[in-house]
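Saccharopine dehydrogenase family protein structure dump, as promised
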Amino acid sequence: MSRLLIIGCGGVAGVAIHKCCQNSDVFTEICIASRTKSKCDAIKAKLENTTKTVITTAQVNADSKDELVALINSYKPDAVLNLALPYQDLTIMDACLETKTDYIDTANYEPEDTTDPEWKAVYEKRCKDLGFTAYFDYSWQWAYKEKFEKAGITALLGTGFDPGVTSVFTAYALKHYFDEIHYIDILDCNGGDHGYPFATNFNPEINLREVSANGSYWEDGKWIETKPMEIKRVYNFDGVGEKDMYLLHHEEIESLAKNIPNVKRIRFFMTFGQSYLTHMQCLENVGMLSTEPVMYEGREIVPIQFLKALLPDPASLGPRTKGKTNIGCIFTGVKDGKEKTIYIYNMCDHQECYKEVGSQAVSYTTGVPAMIGASLVLSGQWKKPGVYNVEEFDPDPYMEALNKFGLPWVVDENPVTVE
Ligand code: NDP
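structure tokens r here:
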């Protein structure tokens, strides 16, 4: 019996909302609130006669703490699930603090305006101190720990697939297969084809910022940064086949480095086809990935936001995308004094996802874990005052829920490793 406020109504939220409605015992009532209320009303109309979950909708600008506080005070949710953009993380956390409401999200904070001098000063110091230059990092949200503890509320950070399920796989491997984990390789493969020359599978602005940035990995207690796409490997993925994959910076590396004792190296690889990379390079070379505003015919535009308006809406890729995703982690460590390696992964079929919830697998693999994280906080199983990443909780109920809600996983005890 609980009431959840969901903020955002894009690709990921669409799946999470479907899944909450399949789990009405936990989610008795949900309110879908976003910038564009018509999208919330459309999904409500689609689902309300198929579920016991009572759905309401609202308009909210999640950049405004005051609007969020007013909405939370009027709806009185038990928790807020943030499925808007990383830009809104801190305002939503502030509103949760003010109203003493639990908070859940899928991506760490990143500023919308990277030219903001106040943010830039902190960023530049962090680049120097820690040695990675991604625009996003956990420091902003981890800084809320004490405030959340004092308020007696929980913040669960990063319950998507990666971060999210990959971190839960790590906690599960450590609990059931290893005494110590020394090496983690996170492999994110999308073997899907949507038939467009170029499109991104989730929010283009967030996606392109992430993949055009420098890569980095964690080794022997420090960050090692690489040029974008500098490190390439080839891997043969179950259900997909052989793919090129490239080392990227990714946010769960930061939290796993902090939370997994004795880990020596953590890397993240994502698959990209040559055509995607050529398009991206070209867009970058002409300045279309820039987040800095430029003047155009008397008004300011942000190139990457303009590009977003031109690209296919990720939510529209569902009916066109065929093939599978395969995402998981290869762990090497020791158990009872012996070295061992295991690979835990999930395969997800784009067309199956579309049949079930009307979305492709990238939104599906994020929306399902978002629902699961929210259900564990609401049911009290993952409730503890403070700010936590998913690997800090007991992985077992989460792993069980993945099997139940459409993301079954496999443990391969004799995998091929990545060089
Ligand atoms: P979309 O762009 O499809 O959806 C974002 C939604 O947020 C839209 O409904 C948008 O409204 C709404 N929104 C944006 N700004 C505001 C605002 N100021 N106030 C209220 N609502 C707002 O993104 P996705 O669904 O693809 O991604 C959602 C989140 O999931 C992102 O944070 C993304 O980084 C994260 N993610 C995490 C992954 C993981 O594995 N951990 C993987 C993929 C995504 P409008 O409709 O008006 O534009």
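The chain has two domains: 2-157, 165-357.
lmk if u need the other ones
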